[in-house]
Design a protein that fits this description.
It contains two helices and eleven strands, in the order αβββββββββββα. By secondary structure, it is mainly β.
Length: 213
C-alpha cells in the first residue's frame, strides 16, 4: 500500500509540473509544409536540420499564385552561403545568405499559452501531449506561436505574421532524430566550382518560400 501511495504522489507531481522552454534535438530529418493566409503559397517538402553545423537542406514542391514549382536549397549559415540545386540538370546557383541561424528552440522569454493533447487522452498511445508557446520574432519583427511536444521538444507547428502575406503556417511532421543522409548537407560535386556573383540578390530563409517565381 505504501508503494502505491508513493507512486501516486510521484505521478501527481510529474503531471503538476509546469512546462518549461526547451530545445529541439540538434539533428533532425522530417517533412515540412508551409501555407499563407492569402492562399498564394503552398509548399510541401522534406527538410534536414543540423544545429551543430548550422546547416539546413530543404527539398520542396508547391504552388505560388497558382503556378507549380520545385525547389532544392542548401543553407550554410557559417559560410553565409546558399546553394540552389538542380539535381536533374546537375546545375546550381551560389548566393549570399544574410540571415542568422536560428535554432529550433523555445526562447526563455516565451509565454506558455497552454498544454493539451492532440488526438485522444482516453487510452494509451491515442494522443500526443504538446505545449504551445508565444513570443517575439528575432529583431522584434512580430509575434510567433509555436507548438512542440512535451517530451523531446519536437516541433509540430509554428505560426507567424508578415505584412505581405498575413499569417504564415509552418508544420513539421515525420520527425526522425539524426540526419538520414549526411551527404545532403554538403554541396554536390557539380557545385564546387560555382562562384558567387557580386550582383546576386542576397537571400534570407523566408525568401525561400515567399519569392518563388
Amino acid at each position: 500500500m505504501m508503494l502505491l501511495v508513493v507512486l501516486t504522489c510521484l505521478l501527481a507531481g510529474c503531471l503538476a509540473q509546469e512546462p518549461h522552454p526547451c530545445s529541439s534535438p540538434p539533428l533532425l530529418t522530417g517533412g515540412i509544409s508551409v501555407s499563407t493566409q492569402n492562399e498564394k503559397l503552398w509548399v510541401y517538402g522534406r527538410f534536414l536540420y543540423d544545429a551543430l553545423g548550422q546547416r539546413i537542406r530543404i527539398m520542396e514542391l508547391g504552388t505560388y499564385e497558382n503556378k507549380s514549382f520545385t525547389y532544392d536549397a542548401l543553407l550554410l549559415y557559417r559560410e553565409k552561403t546558399m546553394y540552389e540545386i538542380n539535381e536533374h540538370d546537375r546545375t546550381c546557383k551560389k548566393k549570399p545568405l544574410t540571415a542568422d541561424f536560428h535554432p529550433m528552440v523555445i526562447p526563455k522569454d516565451a509565454s506558455l499559452l497552454g498544454q493539451y493533447v492532440l488526438g485522444s487522452s482516453s487510452g494509451p498511445g491515442e494522443g500526443l501531449l504538446v505545449n504551445t508557446w508565444m513570443g517575439d520574432l528575432p529583431g522584434k519583427a512580430g509575434k510567433f506561436m509555436t507548438t512542440v511536444t512535451e517530451f523531446g521538444c519536437f516541433p509540430i507547428s509554428s505560426v507567424y505574421h508578415t505584412s505581405q502575406y498575413g499569417w504564415v503556417v509552418t508544420s513539421l511532421f515525420n520527425n526522425v532524430v539524426g540526419i538520414t543522409d549526411p551527404g545532403q548537407l554538403n554541396p554536390p560535386d557539380f557545385c564546387m566550382d560555382e562562384e558567387m556573383r557580386a550582383d546576386e540578390e542576397q537571400t534570407d530563409f523566408l525568401s525561400l518560400f515567399l519569392n518563388k517565381l
